[in-house]
C-alpha cells in the first residue's frame, strides 16, 4: 500500500488529479442527467470531466520534465500547472468555475500543503469563484464550495481531518441545494455542478486517506431518470428529472463550439435569454479586464470571468456575439473563441441542430493563420498553442462540432498520436465513423487537406489524404534553449536548429541561413512543391528570399507561402 501523504506535495496533487478524473469519468453520465438549471442541456458532467482532464495533463507534463526520477517537481509547480491546465481547458460554466476554484487553491497551496494551508486554500477558492461570477445565485456549486470551506475551519492539525470535513460539508450543502433553488426542487435533483465538486473533493479524501469516501448524496438513485432528495425537511421522492438534453448546436458566423451548460446567474422564470453564448481565452492586463467585465455585463448576462496573471477565461450570454468578441479585442488578444447560438422554443432555451453532413475534416494547427486557412478549406480546427497541446476531450469536442457522420482527423503532431487515437475511439462510441491520418506536422496536414474530396468514398478519400501526407517531408526551425547534444553535433543556447522529419539536421547562426541549408538538404532528394509557413514575427522578406533561393537552385519547383500567426516555430517547411 502506498504511503499516505502528510501534506499535499506534488505527488499528492498528481494523484488527486488522476483520482478526480476517474471519479468524474464514473459519474459524468449521472451528473449530465441531473443538469436542469438553468438549461437542461445535459453536459455538466462531461464539461467537468474535460476540465479536469486538461488539469491532469498539465500536471503530467510537469512530471515529464523530471524524467530521470532523481527528483520530483516542487509542489508550487504542480499546483500551478493544475490550475493553468484547468483554465485553458475549462468547458462550460461549471468547468470555468471549477478552474477558478483550483486557481484559488493553487495560490495558497504553492506556499505549503499542510492542514492550515489547505483550510486557507479552500476559503480562497470559494471566494475567488464567487467573485468571478457577475451575479451569483445560491444553491449552485458556489454554495457547495463555500460550505466546504466553512466545514473545514478549525485548529485540528491533521490533514485528513480537514479534507474529510470539507468533503462532508460539501455533501451536506449539496443535499440542501433543492431547497435553495426552486427549479432544482421542482425537478427533484441537486445542483449538477455542485455534485461534480463533491466528486472532486471525494478524490482528495481518497488521496490523503487511501480510502474512497461514501458516494453521495446520490441524485439519481441508481437511475438517471429519478432523483430522491430532501427539500425543506420533507421528502421529495421519485420526481422526474426536468428538461430534455439537446443534441447539438448550430454554428454562428464566428467559430462555434461544443454546447456548454448554462450560466449560474440565469433567470429562473423561464424567460427567453440572449441568443448567443460566447466563450474565449483572453490575454490581457488586469486593468483591461476590469473594464471588459463592465462592458460585457452591459451587453448580456451569465457573465463569468476567471483567471489572472495575464490569462483569462471569459463566458457570457449576449444577443450581439460580435460585440462581445470586439470587447475582448479591445481588452487584449482573445483566442479559442466559441460561439453557440440559442433558439427559443416553448419558453425554453434549446439548441438548434441541422442534419449532420456526410463527411468532415478535423485538423490540429499550431497557429491562428493556419486555422483561418483550414477553415476556409472547410475543416474544423483545433489550435495547439505553444506549450498547450489539446487534450483528447478538446479533439472530441471538435469532432462533435464538425457534426458529420464521417470524420477524418489530422493531429499534425507525432506527440498527439495517442491523444488523437483516444479521441477517435470516444467519437466512434457516439456513432461517428472516424479515420485517424497520422500526420506529424502541419505541412502534412495541409497536403492531406488539399486532396480531400468529400464526394468520393470514405476509404478512398482517407487513402488519398494519407498518401499525400506521407509524400510530404517536413521540417521546422527552432531556437536552442540551452547547450545540448543533437544528431548534428553540440548546439549552444541561442543557436538556430533545423529539424528535418523530427531530428536536428542543421545547426545555424541565423534563421535565413539555416532555412536555406534545410531546404537544400530536403530538395536534394527531389521535390515538386515547397510549402513555407511563417511565424508571427518573421518578416515577409524572408519568404521572398527563400522563394528566390528555391527558384534559382531547384528548377521546376514551386513555392507557396502561408502566414501561421502565433506559433511555436518561426518557420515550418514542407517538401512534396
Question: Could you walk me through the main structural features you see in this protein, from its secondary elements to its overall organization?
Answer:
- The chain is α+β, with helices and mostly antiparallel strands and 576 residues long.
- It contains 18 helices and 19 strands.
- α1 (10-33) runs parallel beside α3 (75-89), α1 packs antiparallel against α9 and α2 (44-64) runs parallel beside α4 (92-109).
Kindly state the mean pLDDT as a whole number? 82
Backbone shape = globular
Strand order of the largest sheet: 16-15-12-19-17-18
Helix count, DSSP H or I runs of 4 or more residues? 18
Number of strands: 19
Which percent bin holds the helix content? 40-55%
Low-confidence residue ranges: 216-271, 343-353
> How much is the radius of gyration in Å?
25 Å
Question: Which keywords apply here?
Answer:
576 residues; alpha+beta; 19 strands; 45% helix; six-stranded mixed β-sheet
Write the layout of secondary structure elements.
Blueprint lengths: L9 H24 L10 H21 L10 H15 L2 H18 L5 H18 L8 H11 L7 H22 L1 H6 L4 H18 L19 E3 L2 E3 L39 E9 L1 H14 E9 L2 E8 L2 H11 E14 L2 E4 L5 E9 L2 H9 L3 E4 L8 H11 L1 E7 L6 H13 L3 E4 L5 H9 L7 H13 L2 E7 L4 E3 L2 E3 L4 E5 L2 E6 L2 H13 L5 E7 L4 H14 L4 E8 L5 E5 L1
Parallel strand pairs: 8-9, 8-10, 10-11, 17-18
Antiparallel strand pairs: 1-2, 3-5, 3-6, 4-5, 6-7, 12-15, 12-19, 13-14, 15-16, 17-19
Helix pairs in contact: 1-2, 1-3, 1-9, 2-3, 2-4, 3-4, 4-5, 5-6, 5-7, 6-7, 6-9, 7-9, 10-11, 13-14, 15-16, 17-18
